[in-house]
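Pipeline run #58 for the internal structure catalog. This entry was flagged by the ingest filter as a single-chain record with no existing model, so it goes straight to prediction. Upstream metadata was stripped on purpose; only the residue string is passed forward. Reviewer on rotation: M.T. Logging verbosity set to normal.
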Amino acid sequence: MGYNEKLANRVREALIIKRKVEEKKMMGGLTFMVNYKMCIGILQDDLMLRIDPALYESALEKPGCREMNFTGKPMKGFVFVGEEGFKSKKNFDYWINFALDYNKKAKSSRKSKKNYFSGNFTSSLHSLVDSAGNSYQV
């Protein structure tokens, strides 16, 4: 599959002012994580956008927008937008901002970072118990 590098550069340029942006290669394309949440992606020549599920149906009525369907079932809250929907700068900015607006409200699927010491805290004993059963006073 792959992704369109020119389109990736347009997205990078649009996100340059954002903090906490991470690029990840996934789903056969490139995904931009904003604030640890999937926000924008590129699959071949299409934009993939995570949008407000409440606005999903109205988004599908816009030129170039279609449902994201990987498994034979549409993923509500995710859409693909073909080049005809984002060719102009105005339309491109619209879709990027549409995804970024929802990103502020979207829940993160970010898993909490593990502590360096993987053990169980027992507050009543004020000790730390490691996986081997050894207890340490804290």
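catalog note: Residues 5-105 form a domain with the Aspartate Aminotransferase, domain 1 fold (CATH 3.90.1150.30).
catalog note: The beta strands are 21-26, 29-34, 37-43, 46-50, 65-69, 74-81, 119-122, 127-130, 135-137.
status: ready for reviewer M.T.
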